[in-house]
Amino acid sequence: MKKKLITFSLLSLLIVSAIIPLAASAAETWDYGYDKTKMRHYNHYYHSSYSHYTTTTKNGITYFGPTASAGYWSRFYLDYTGPYKVTFNKYIK
Questions:
Q1: Share of the chain above pLDDT 90, in %
Q2: CA angle, 72 then 77 then 83, to 5°
Q3: Exposed (0-12), middle (13-18) or buried (19+): which is 32, by Cβ within 10 Å?
């Protein structure tokens, strides 16, 4: 009986320790690309725990998006000016 109690206690502790990090993780959403109707590149980033910002690099020039506080969106738009290679990045401060 004592072994079953110890086994059950350790198993429940293992299950709880596996669930807690999943429940406590920060929410993060990142959406980027090209809007054909408005002819502009967009870079949207949301983080629930840290201040954050985005960058968009076009034709070798890096453009910095606004820094947003935790729980707010950082939205950045860049007009289309030609067929240049565009890269999108996200950062946490």
A1: 67
A2: 145
A3: middle
Burial of 80 (0-12, 13-18, 19+ CB in 10 A): middle
Domain boundaries, the chain: 26-92
**Helices (H), strands (E): how many in the chain?**
1, 6
CA atoms of 79 and 88, how far apart (whole Å): 14
Q: What number does CATH give the domain 26-92?
A: 2.60.40.2850
- pTM, two decimal places: 0.71
State the CB neighbour count (10 A cutoff) for residue 43.
Answer: 24
